[in-house]
Amino acid sequence: MPQVQTLRVDLEEVGARNWWAALLATLSAQYGNAYLRFVGVVDGEPRYFSATFPVPRTWGSIPPREKWAPGMTAALAEFRRQIEDDGWRPVGHGAQPW
Asked: What's this model's pTM, rounded to 2 decimal places?
């Protein structure tokens, strides 16, 4: 029987995995925005990355919404297409849209 793998979708700030990328993202951000992306994680390793979208830094840990995170919905839709094209299928869903 083949081993079943799980892909978990996380949300992370661009540069969260590398200090130099975080510094570059902060220095190049306009209007105090942070840039987030969706990440598909399998066995603890990031395997898929979505396009980025801006969010105001002042929102802290509040999950983004399209109204104030323009591009989030499009990034998520493209991300879903990418992972579904690779054969992944949804089996569960948390409280957030992703």
From this structure: 0.80
**From first to last of its 98 residues, what are the pLDDT tens digits of the chain?**
678 899 999 999 887 666 555 566 556 655 667 889 999 999 999 999 999 998 887 655 678 888 888 999 999 999 999 999 999 998 888 888 77
Q: Give the start-to-end residue ranges of the domains of the chain.
A: 7-85
- DSSP string for 29-74: -STTEEEEEEEEEETTEEEEE---EEEEGGGTTSPP-TTTSTTHHH
Q: Are 13 and 25 in contact (CB under 8 A)?
A: yes
Question: Which one-letter amino acid corresponds to residue 88?
Answer: W
Over the range 4-38, which residues count as b (16 or more CB within 10 Å of their CB) and which as e? eeebebebebbbbeeeeeeeebbeeeeeebbbbbb
DSSP state of 4: P
Nearest to 35 by CA among 56, 49, 19: 56
